Structures are given as C-alpha cells and as structure tokens.
Amino acid sequence: MGRILFIIPFLFLLMGCWSSQELDNSALVHGIGLDKSDGKLRISVEIIKPTGSSEQGGGEGGGGNGQHILLDRDADSIIHGARGLIKDAKRRLYFDHARLWVIGEELAKEDFIGYLDESRRDQMFRLNSYLFITEGNPIDILSTSTLYEDLSSAEIVSALEQTQYIAEYTSVKLYEFYKLIEGPIPNAYLPIIQTKKEKDKTITSLDGTAVIRNDKMVGKLNTHETVGLNVLLNKAKSGGETVSLNEKEKVSVEIKKSETKIKPTLVGNQLKAHLNIEIEGTLADNTTKSNINEQWISKVEKEVSNLAEKYVRLTLDKLQKELKTDISGIGLETYRKYPKQWQNIQSEWNEIFSNADIIIDVHTNITHQGLINKSINRHHKKPYNNPYKLRN
C-alpha cells in the first residue's frame, strides 16, 4: 500500500499540460515591428512557418518567404492589432517566442513607451527580448534575407550575442530598457538597425545608437560616439582599435578589458566629474618596420589612450551640447554619491549635466606583444657569405 501511495504523485507528471496548444493551430511570433500609420499604430509580425505548411502570408502587406510569414495591420494598440491579425493568419498569435522588437523612428520620436505597456503587462511577452529603432519601415527589417538562420529576427538576435566582441555596437533588452527609464535619470538608449545592399542582397546592419529622453527619441550617436558610450558604461569589454604612429605606419591592438571609474563632485548645481579609464589590450598586428621594445610599446599605448579619449569626448560633446541628455552613467554615480542633494536637483539634472566640467584621463596597458618582437623585414639583404653563390 505504501508503494502505491508513493507512485501515485508521479503519475500526475505524465499527464499532458491542460493549457497546451497544438503547433499546427498556432502562429508563433518571433519578431514584432511597431510604427505610425495614419494616426494609428502599425503592428508587423514575423511568424515561423510550420514545416510542410503551404500557407502564404496574407492580410494587409502580408507576404511569405522561405521559413517565415510576414503580416501587418493598423490598430489602436498591440493587443487590438494581435486580435485583428488572427483574421489574416487564420490562427491565434502567440508571442511567447518573440525575441525582437523593432520601433520605427517616426513612432520613436513621439511618446512610444505607452505602446510597449502590453509587453510587460501580458505574461505572453518576454522581457528578455531585444529592442531596436529603425529609420525605415520595421517590416523591412523583418523581411530581409538571412545568411545563416531561417528567420530574420532569429539571425539578428544571434548577431547581438556577438556584439561583446565589437565595441561599436550596444544591445538593450526590454527589462533593461524599463530599468533605465524608471531609474533616477529617466533617459535611455537603443541600438539603431538599418537595411543595406550587399552584393545585390538586402541585409540588416547595426548603425549607431538612439538617445531617449522623456519617452521620446531626441537624437542619435554615430558609430564612434557609440564606442565612447560603451566605454563610459563599461560595456566595451572587447574589440579592436587601429592607431597610426605616423602617416604610413599603423598598429592594431585587441582590447581585452576596459574599465571606467566616474568620480563626480557636486557643489550646489555645479558639477565636476573625473573619468578614469583603464584599458588593457594585446598587440594584434604590427605593420611598421620597428622592433618591439618598451619605448615603442609606450608610444602605441599613448596612441590608443588618445583615440579612446577622442571617442569619449565626442560622445560627451554630443550629449552635453546638442542633445542635453545624460545617458553616460555620470548622473547615476552622482545620485549614488549625493542621495540627499539629488532630491533637489533631479528635475534639472539634464541641464546640470550639460554644463558640467568633465575631465577624461585614459591609461592603456598592453599586456602581451605576441610571440615575436620583430616586425616583418620586407627588404631582405643578401647574405654576406653565400656558400651557394653561382659562378659565372
């Protein structure tokens, strides 16, 4: 009897899930696009095409291509659009697998945060999905040709996982975005994604960073300014930089570590901040004719430091003088250091940041120079004594 009682609970584990859905009767959304359309919200979706299915995309702007189906529809909200898309998909849409959100720039320049409310209010949506902004139509991003994956959204997400090796890009997930806009400085940033032609094929490419203030996109950072932002935010964990020692000689350094420490000093409404940036790297290649020694290494380290300082200064100039928006991390460190004073200055922080005096100090340390100390000698001299010299 005891054994029977012991076995009975495990029998429930073998029962099917009461809320399960048959894949053949479901439309699994992997990518979502949002944009403006005649005063309404245009919602676009990329749906995985079931194996063996002969269905093609339909509805307004719909189309099928390979392993995915694309649909879009105008609506008042995401949930309203999702319900309407059932008419086109002939199936109920499920967003449990959605990993990608693409916001059109036209919508991003308005109060677009409200349209994202459904993403964390409904348990179907995943807060670890990635967010992007695009200048064009979001459905163009979802419909681009893929190089490796079956779905455009899956390939873009896969590419983002490689951005840790490239300092020019940044990535933001939904929960990270909400954390930014609901923090002590309600500003945020999102990566920009575009389409481009590559050998008669349209592919997607990350290109800069959008700056968000007051729930709206107020400007963008270019590639170099994005590098500076990643350095400020301690997100430039890896990457490569090429520096010029003179007009002809160049050296590449692979960045292994970058750490920025921010020390703010607040007196009334006057802010001063000292940025101490420590970079560690290894020598990637040496196209010069110089042999590697301590003096030569010091010269390369100085050039890498100068380049990093240039990128950070470009970023701060754009944020302070043009956009007047702090996404640099300086405000967060000020909030942590001066929690009492922060209550009095929080509402005018962007103005205080814009007038702040910021000092940048960069130190680079090349920790490894490779397996050889010599550079390639392109002009070989003949041996002084050649035992194999040909006789006339």
TrEMBL record:
Topological type in the membrane: Lipid-anchor
Gene3D superfamilies the UniProt entry points to: Nutrient germinant receptor protein C, domain 3
Start and end residues of each Spore germination protein N-terminal domain: 20-194
Any one Gene Ontology cellular component term annotated for this protein: membrane
Any one of the GO BP annotations: spore germination
Pfam families given in the database record: Spore_GerAC, Spore_GerAC_N
Subcellular location: Membrane
Main location: membrane
InterPro entries assigned: GerAC_N, Spore_GerAC-like, Spore_GerAC-like_C, Spore_GerAC_C_sf
Keyword entries, A-Z: Germination, Lipoprotein, Membrane, Palmitate, Signal
Domain (Spore germination GerAC-like C-terminal): residue spans on this chain: 207-370
Keyword set includes Cell membrane: no
Protein family (similarity comment): Belongs to the GerABKC lipoprotein family.
The name this protein goes by in its record: Ger(X)C family spore germination protein
Species of the source: Sutcliffiella cohnii
